[in-house]
Design a protein that fits this description.
Radius of gyration: 20 Å
Strand order of the largest sheet: 1-2
Mean pLDDT: 89
Strand content: under 5%
Largest sheet: 2 strands, antiparallel
Number of strands: 2
Distance between the termini: 29 Å
Structural class: mainly alpha
Helix content: over 70%
Shape: flat
Low-confidence stretches: none
Number of domains: 1
């Protein structure tokens, strides 16, 4: 029984990384996805702040779900989320003031991220603390990986660096468009195209394997 529970918890985590990725599959959180991913550093910090808020709020909502009246649950979810966002905002302001300035209003706007409120209503309020935290880790981890993928590509092509480390030397001519809004849309579109292509190919491969197994059986 313990092994089955461990497997279920793992599945709750891994679904957010790949099968139900909030960006590549559910297409959520597009505003910060396009706005702050002009560098890998900004992407990681934004993803880390979102992870902190989602995991913390999911933990509290799951732990207090029997104490929250249904009539005011959404309001309380927003208050809980806003509390963690405030902690993240002031922590970044104290520790990373330069990055905090670059991210601007997008840290406070985590409160309005539909992915976070959606996970409280759809999952954390209906499951145990353990599963709620694993779901939050998976979803926020998938969001962070998506931000990093977009931010890394845009920084490499748009600035010739990665995490502010120069990669190509003085001879490289940066693609300035990549660190501008059109570059964000273009890069995201190409990544979504690749992700969907890979998903379709993987599904077709699994179907062929299942058909071969059925024939042999």
């Amino acid at each position: 029984m313990s092994t089955e529970k461990d497997l279920d918890a793992y599945q709750e985590f891994i679904k957010g990384i790949w099968r139900d990725n909030p960006v590549f599959v559910q297409v959520l959180g597009m505003c910060p996805m396009l706005a702050v991913t002009n560098s890998a550093v900004n992407a990681v910090v934004m993803g880390g702040a979102t992870l902190f808020v989602l995991v913390g709020s999911s933990f509290l909502v799951a732990a207090m779900k029997h104490l929250i009246p249904k009539q005011v649950r959404i309001s309380l979810y927003v208050i809980i989320i806003a509390t963690f966002v405030t902690v993240a905002d002031y922590t970044l302001l104290a520790l990373l003031p330069k990055v905090h300035k670059e991210l601007g209003a997008f840290i406070p706007l985590i409160v309005a991220n539909c992915m976070i409120l959606g996970r409280q209503e759809a999952f954390a309020s209906r499951h145990s603390v353990r599963y709620a935290v694993m779901d939050a880790l998976g979803m926020s981890g998938g969001f962070l990986l998506a931000l990093l993928a977009l931010g890394g590509v845009r920084e490499i092509l748009g600035s010739g660096s990665l995490f502010n480390v120069d990669l190509f030397g003085d001879g490289f001519e940066p693609w300035v468009i990549m660190i501008l809004p059109p570059g964000g849309f273009l890069t995201l579109g190409l990544i979504l195209l690749f992700f969907n292509w890979f998903t379709v190919r993987r599904r077709a491969f699994l179907q062929r394997v299942a058909a071969l197994d059925a024939e042999e059986g």
